[in-house]
Amino acid sequence: MTPPPADAPSAAANVRRAALVYNPTKVDTDALRGAVTKASAAAGWGEPLFRETTIEDLGDSATKELLAAGADAVLVAGGDGTVRAVSEAMAGSGVKLTIVPSGTGNLLARNLRLPLTDREAMIRATFDGDTLAMDVGLAELRRADGTLDKHAFVVMGGMGLDAAMIANTNPQLKKSVGWVAYVDGAARSLVNAKPFRIMYQLPGRRLHSARVQSVLFANCGSLPAGLELVPDASITDGALDVVIFQPKGAFGWLFVWRRVAWDNSVLRKSKTGRRMLALRTKDNSVLYSRGDGIDVASTDPKPVQLDGDEFGEAVAVRTRIDPGALLVAVPRGHDVTGL
């Protein structure tokens, strides 16, 4: 009989133990481990377990190992890619996940309106906070050779220009200036951006054909700098929001920018602004839909991204939503209205 891991919790002692998965390039390792150890002791829990992410393991394998060892709660600290990988392993486990904000974007933490600068508050939430059941997106990528890859995402994914933008972003620049580096990636991607033909279908609806620049599938829709890409997206509604970008020429891109930076992020926040939007002539540069997911197919392989990480090229993407699959710790009394 194989003995349990040396750091596995003792069932006989009935001691609860938390586990921390962290990206050592994004955090102050000693300070973070010390804070989790201190909070665990204060809550009467046992010595916590720790795992670092690596180039080979973004956190999913480490998380599965910790869950198998009996961890009663998992904390994650790192960038959006680390949060995505750990969330993928945690989905459906019934074990609570705490997001300790760190890294570049922290998009999930932003969309959950978590305290981005109070690490101790989030660590404490592991032991005495409330729990929110949030949706998880599932993406099946079909490669040009017919092989399939399946991954989860918690913020949003996309096929086309948005993924090319991420692939063209300088990693060193991103490390230095954060999400602003995506502006450089966008500028380089737009130079050669060409629309491509897709077939797409939302479950239960008819098949469509369109020439697009990008297709996004979003679980939540807020971006840094106060931009609302998908203002009606909800992380708890059991649905994915789909955004199709199909601008025609330079003026089309101006319409896209107006929709995201002005209409969604400014006008929609006031009653007067919403009246103005109701009177405006509609344009088709940006189309919004909502449903259980979307099936997208292209004749040529196109780049794909999930939660800001590039996932190579695919000729088809099938996305679905897993309602309430991830249990997330939030501070006690945290306002979850509108999430």
Automatic annotation (TrEMBL):
<keyword id="KW-0443">Lipid metabolism</keyword>
<protein>
    <submittedName>
        <fullName>Diacylglycerol kinase family protein</fullName>
    </submittedName>
</protein>
<feature type="domain" description="DAGKc">
    <location>
        <begin position="13"/>
        <end position="143"/>
    </location>
</feature>
<dbReference type="Pfam" id="PF00781">
    <property type="entry name" value="DAGK_cat"/>
</dbReference>
<keyword id="KW-0418">Kinase</keyword>
<dbReference type="InterPro" id="IPR017438">
    <property type="entry name" value="ATP-NAD_kinase_N"/>
</dbReference>
<keyword id="KW-0067">ATP-binding</keyword>
<keyword id="KW-0808">Transferase</keyword>
<dbReference type="Pfam" id="PF19279">
    <property type="entry name" value="YegS_C"/>
</dbReference>
<keyword id="KW-0594">Phospholipid biosynthesis</keyword>
<dbReference type="GO" id="GO:0016301">
    <property type="term" value="F:kinase activity"/>
</dbReference>
<keyword id="KW-0547">Nucleotide-binding</keyword>
<dbReference type="InterPro" id="IPR045540">
    <property type="entry name" value="YegS/DAGK_C"/>
</dbReference>
<comment type="similarity">
    <text>Belongs to the diacylglycerol/lipid kinase family.</text>
</comment>
<dbReference type="InterPro" id="IPR001206">
    <property type="entry name" value="Diacylglycerol_kinase_cat_dom"/>
</dbReference>
<dbReference type="InterPro" id="IPR016064">
    <property type="entry name" value="NAD/diacylglycerol_kinase_sf"/>
</dbReference>
<dbReference type="InterPro" id="IPR050187">
    <property type="entry name" value="Lipid_Phosphate_FormReg"/>
</dbReference>
<keyword id="KW-0444">Lipid biosynthesis</keyword>
<keyword id="KW-1208">Phospholipid metabolism</keyword>
